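User: Hello! I'm new to structural biology and keep hearing that structure can be predicted from sequence alone. Could you demonstrate with Enoyl reductase (ER) domain-containing protein? Please show me the input and the output so I can see what each looks like.

Assistant: Of course. The first part below is the input, the amino acid sequence of Enoyl reductase (ER) domain-containing protein. The second part is the output, the predicted structure written as tokens.
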Amino acid sequence: MATVGKVIKCQAAVAWEPNVPMVIEEIEVAPPQANEIRIKVIATGVCHTDLYHLFEGKNKEGFPAVLGHEGAGVVESVGAWGNRVIKSFPLFLSQCRECRFCKCPKTNLCDQSWSSDRYAQMSDTTTRFSCRGQPILQFMGTSTFSEYTVLNQVAVAKIHDDAPLERVCLLGCGISTGYGAAINTAKVEPGSVCAVFGLGAVGLAAVMGCKNAGASRIIAVDINEQKFEKAKIFGATDFVNPKSHKKPISEVLAEMTNGGVDFSMECVGNGAVMRSALESCVKGWGVSVLVGWTDVQDFSARPIQLISGKTWKGSLFGGFKSKDSVPKLVLDYMAGRIMLDEFVTHTMSLDQVNDAVQLMKTGGCIRTIINLSK
């Protein structure tokens, strides 16, 4: 390729500062260095974590940055400046396969990830981006709101050559997170009763995971009743709007389920909802999983909730080891074992990215795909 070993100038959505719309800029993307890969991004989803960083994150050291972390594309060049045109998958959660976390089957964390010590900034200090003469941070190590991006090879997975990138890109965060929270973290059992709090893409994916795991009853909980029909498509059997009841939602669910659900998943990222999800579980064996991303709130519960036998745990990327699991999830989609098309409500171009953000803020979409291939 003519671009191998050279700086590429391309379009990207730059978040110059928090709480301000992104700006479409021409940025410079440096060639990949040793153990790095430069990718031409074809499609990317807009995830709530992008909004979290833009509107809720409190650390200005995380700006300016190019957001986006649900992307898929093709390899443009690799470190030492070779090139192989293969379909590839940027991963916000790396897998080096060598650190103590990667070698442990109990976790999907990795010591080589940006998240090892920079959760507040949500980016590493190393970047291959620049704009207007200054470095631009790569959000979550990925930055898929750019026509090109550069990643360490530990954060890239090769996927099937026939995979439709405008759909499988969604496996980069939200869908894998919710689905895996049910099947990997909660370990939902056949015949069990589940409750999912929050029916965005993550919550709907959790519903799908509960169904695929064999749950007999899946209660969808959300204050937006317009989402109930969509939840039914993914397998929800019961629907509850907390605002329609005068008593706490945990009491409502306890009455519906003879004492509480076997498994609950909080897919909102709200401390109060996390507590409600735990309290909605049956004593003795109930399991509640924190799935919604947040680091700006504390959460708490009465000790008796855990003393009575309930379990409270968290889930990052659904417990999936990224490089190992994403190619398999792509194949699961291609074989019809998991749904992706049903999550997509809008498709837009990069210059409409702020419109996509506004849609998500107002609950007007499930997932918007940003098409960068044109």
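User: So the tokens describe the shape?

Assistant: Right, they're a compact way of writing down the 3D structure. Reading them back into a model, for example: The mean pLDDT is 92.
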